[in-house]
Amino acid sequence: MDFSLTKEQELLREALAGFLSARYDLERSRSAVKTGAGWQPAVWRGFADELGILGATLPEDADGMGGGPVELMVIAEELGRALVVEPYVDTVVLGAGLLRRTGGKQADAVLRQIVSGEARTAFAALEPASGQTLHDVSVTARRDGDGWVLDGSKVVVTSAPLSTHLIIVARTAGARRDQAGISLFLTEFDPADPPAGVEVHSYRTIDDRLAADLTFAEFRLPADALLGAEGAAWAAIEPTLDEAIAAICAEAVGCMSKVLDDTVEYAKQRQQFGVPISSFQALQHRMVDMYMELEQAIAATYLVIYALDGSAQARARAASAAKVTIARAARFIGQNAVQLHGAMGMTEELAIGHYFKRLTAIESEFGTSDAHLARYAKLTQSA
After folding, report:
1. Is the full-model pTM beyond 0.85?
2. Which CATH architecture has domain 234-381?
3. Local structure of 189: helix, strand or coil
4. Spatial separation of the C-alpha atoms in residues 346 and 206, rounded to whole Å
5. Domain ranges, ordered by start, for the chain
6. Quick one: average pLDDT of 192-207?
7. Bridge-based pairing state of the strands 165-171 and 121-124
8. In the prediction, which pLDDT does 1 show?
């Protein structure tokens, strides 16, 4: 299998890396999260107008460029290397992925708005008692005249405070953990002025992103808010989640590459007993171990990227295998980078601490290692 990038993919990588190097300052982005709007709208506008990455992986009939999984990997890796907090995965991978797979007039319109940078989506799926099991859905949607009424709560809805649209998972039939009977609903959303029937509690996560807990109480939606067929949403949700897993695996590779480079450079400069600490054999071995974990993470990411267009079972196995591999590598590289930097590793002034927090969050995002090991074992048994 040829893992080399095409000329066009290399140009995409170079253009995005150059843009981020010139325009994405880590200190400014963290200031925007902690004391400002939570993101940089000008950067998002640049993603849409100057780079076109918001539509790079979306179909041409939605005004996209028709790219595929490899383009997704290239973009996500560079975003991870620069530690970008803008909601690329939540909007372009999760949001657009669900809209593509369900279709319909509203979905097509929002897809085009995503490409142009006008729409940002948040996926309201997790619930207080569901853990990471996304088909454990207790939020209900019942018909009321020509529309729908939603009741229940969602937690850790990432990017909700930045979004213009919500995609809500709700149960329209079946028992609580059934995959059948789950539906998706699309609604416009203003976090500063939420619609009647929606209560929003926004907060900042440990990795400097914004999220919200949402409570729906007699939240009314029109009939055309339903995405796809009633009760059949899991067929769209599962492959979209695997695509999102592939994206954050690539993002983690970008983060870990930057962390390892910075750690090696620091070890060359930091002196102890009159010599650089990079000359100590024990620390050399440690950094080699970090490099080996990174190489395994890269291989696992390639595996899932190339499996996204394969069979459903192959895709799911590759996604779970990659997630477990990435989680292990993220913990090992992140913790050792902090340790090798000493007490400085967790300071706000040093980039390493910020990367470590993001890698820690990625460990459990879209499922823990235990959950994906169990999923992989189940898929292997049924193969």
Report:
1. yes
2. Up-down Bundle (1.20)
3. coil
4. 13
5. 7-119, 122-227, 234-381
6. 95
7. parallel
8. 64
